[in-house]
Amino acid sequence: MSFIKRGRAFKGALASTAVAAALAATAGSAFAAGNPADAAAQAAKAAEQHHAPGVKGKLAAPRAAAGDWEQTATFPMAAIERDGWLDWYDPDGRGGFKAARLTASDLSSFKHVIQVDQDKDGEKDGAWSILKDGTLFYASTKQGSAKTIGGGWQIYNKVFSPGNLAGARESDLLAVDKSGVMWMYLGYADGRVTARTKVGGGWGQYTEIAGQGDLNGDGRTDIVARDKAGVLWLYTGNGDRQDPFNRRVKIGGGWNTYNRILSVGDLDGDGRTDLVARGNDGTLWRYSGNGDSRDPFDNRVKIGWGYNSLNLI
């Protein structure tokens, strides 16, 4: 599946009218153009159009049990173009992505968009968004509206949610500040978060951190981190809200060939969390998860090309 670039049909003064019309058509109500909260709400509502397609053949392995009430989530991949417009890439049911689903959401003022599955039914139902000025929003895909959670988030270089870290159903947030200290915020179903808890220092050594669910098959949320030398490390979760990760395990070297590493959950339909990596040449690769604590990913599979013009989030 290749990425096909296209130009926008409206710019400048025409943008407000076109955006308002597109928002009304997509979200079912008109939002004020240029309002970040409305953009967050529109982006979340647009993502609700995604439903994980059924998979067939080799990819249709039985789903791995992640708990008695939760499924491994599958998310669309979000991408922001250089001019700030948001596109969605929905899973195609064959371990890759469909062509871009265009939106009229201008996210040029956004720093992070963090998709979550709060009810653990396997599909996205909300998203946290952080503006460049440090404002944190939460939007529900079901309601199509966003609310402000708080400010001050500009102190973090990296904010993401790998899922449930401390045993509750709802997804939690991890944030790495500019000095390399990682903090955890436990999340509520309505997007509110608790006061932060210090996870630990030294996370500034990593250029990429990613995760979305369980990688080693024990039902707990894990993450991977790439250091500046290109080595990828696995941090398995343990459910302790004060110290949520076990000692790191080396996966392997050579990961500096990628300029972006992220997870959209279960991309190949086998019930395990997978990893997506973008090569320095713009090629997109899938690393399917296999549940092995020492070597958690199968050999890479090429799933697209031409993605270097996008900010994958």
Structure description:
β6 (136-140) and β7 (145-150) form a beta hairpin. It is built from two helices and 20 strands. The protein is mainly beta and 313 residues long. It has helices at residues 15-27, 36-47; strands at residues 77-81, 85-89, 101-106, 110-116, 126-131, 136-140, 145-150, 156-163, 172-177, 182-185, 197-200, 206-210, 223-227, 232-235, 249-252, 258-262, 275-279, 284-287, 301-304, 310-312. The longest helix has 13 residues, at 15-27. The chain is globular and about 45 Å long.
List the helices and strands and how they pair.
Layout: H1 15-27, H2 36-47, E1 77-81, E2 85-89, E3 101-106, E4 110-116, E5 126-131, E6 136-140, E7 145-150, E8 156-163, E9 172-177, E10 182-185, E11 197-200, E12 206-210, E13 223-227, E14 232-235, E15 249-252, E16 258-262, E17 275-279, E18 284-287, E19 301-304, E20 310-312
What keyword list fits this structure?
313 residues; mainly beta; four-stranded antiparallel beta sheet; 8% helix
